[in-house]
Each structure stands twice: as structure tokens, then as C-alpha cells.
Amino acid sequence: MTRAAVGERETSAPRAPGRRRRDRDAWPLLLPALIPVALFSVYPLLQGLYLGFTDSRAGRNVVTHFVGLDQYAALLGNELFWSSFRIGLIWAFAVTILQFVAALGLAHLLDADLRLRGLARTLALIPWAMPPVIIAIMWRLLLNPNYGIAGNVNWLGEFSTALPAVIVVGVWAGMPQTTITLLAGLQSIDASLHEAAAVDGAGAWRRFWHVTLPGLRPVIVAITTLDFIWNINSFGLVYVLTAGGPGGQTMLPMLFAYNEAFRYGNFGYASAMGGVLVVLIVGFLLFYLRSQLRRQP
What we know:
Layout: H1 3-12, H2 15-51, H3 70-76, H4 79-111, H5 117-124, H6 126-129, H7 132-142, H8 162-188, H9 191-199, H10 204-232, H11 236-241, H12 253-263, H13 267-295
Helix pairs in contact: 2-13, 3-13, 4-8, 4-10, 8-10, 9-10, 10-13, 12-13
């Protein structure tokens, strides 16, 4: 072992107790943030998971019994659940993919050296600043067959057009945060890489494929994973637009769980469906974390 290595080891060893002391001192500073998260996020989540193993129902003086996996067995045999699950996956994948494609194009446009670029970036954030309920009401007025601007077609009331119309609204509502994230990723790519590729004779498409996309890969994985999680949990936007209709064509999993809990009073049954969604979301989170850890040296 060289003297430099010994000296480095000797100088780095005394730092460990100080670092541990700083870590202990940091916990009291984190408590004001951790306590609300534990009370309003972790505890309701654990309570909901527990209710999925009971026959909890709405009403006064109703006795709740632990039934194990009975609610999950009933859920797996319910065709309405599988239908809502299928519609939810179609909705989540379609909105996530279309959001990414549209946001990537818009991010490239906003990254270009155009006049009034600052104003364009501000206008692109407007849907993000609007509550989902307001967005849904606005689009219901626009898609109304009697006085809307989308023609005489009942876009939200026909079996064949309800889900595509809701997907379009979901893409419009969720595109701004994806656009801003991709725009930040584009601006973090070294411009000299594009210049070197252009000098080597690479066209716009080859520079996009071999320089831009590899540089955006971490951002793409992160934002598409988060978008999918947000979309699979969508409730307010679709509830105001269609409430799951017509005929269950837009019945997302969260709408199905809401109806079971607050319309029919089956809290245990609805919580079991929430548990299934938690498992699905945790799976996507693990995929995201695994992709992030792979990038670390």
C-alpha cells in the first residue's frame, strides 16, 4: 500500500463519526415534512390495504370481519373489474404514449430560437395550471353535440367515440409537464455533440436518433413511468367528462372502485381493487428504480 493511499485512509477515517452525527441531526429537521406524509399518505394507504382483507361496508353499527383473500377472489371473478382494468390499461398506455410523442415535438419547437419563445413556453403551461374539473367542464362544452365546436357528433355519448375523445382530453391536459421535462432534458444535451455530428455529415434525423434520444433516455424513462402512474390513477377528469359511461366504455379502475365504495358501500371490495392497483404501481416504480440504478456507476 502506498503512502498516498495510507494518508488518504487516515484522513478519511475521522470523517465518518462527524457524518453520522450530521445524519442524526438532520432527522429532527425532516420530521415536519415526514409527519404529514405519514399521517395523510402512509397511514391511509395501510388502512386501505387492510380493508381489502375485510368485509367492511357502509352503515352505522356494521360489524367488520376479517375475510382474508375472499374479496380478491370475488374481484378476480368479476367481469366488470376485468373490463375496467382493460379500459384503464388502454387509457393509460394510449395517453402516456401520445403525451410523450406530442410533448417531444412541442419541446423541440420550444427549444428552437423562435420569436416570442418565452410567451410560447408560458402558453404551453396553461393546461397544467388548470384543475382537472375545470378542464373536463371546458371540454364537455366544446364536445357538446348541440352547441359545441366539434360538430353534431356526440363524442362523449357514443360507444365508439367516448374512449378516444377522453384519451384526447387526457393527452391535452397532461402534456405540459411532459413537455417541460423533455425541454429541460434537451437543454442539458451538449450542443457540441450536435455540431460534431453535423460536421461528420449526419442529417437532422440521424442527429435526433443518435444524439438526442440517447441524451434524453434517462428523462424519457422517468417521465413516461411517472405519466403512466398518474394516468392509471386518473379519476377527476374522466369522472366529470363521462362518469364511466356510456355503458361502461370509459369505466377506469378508479371509477369502478369509487362506485363500489361510495355508491354501493362496499368499502372492503373497493379496497381490494385499490390493493391490486398498488401492486401494479409498485411494479412500475421498481422498473423505474431499476433503470435509474443501472445508470449509476
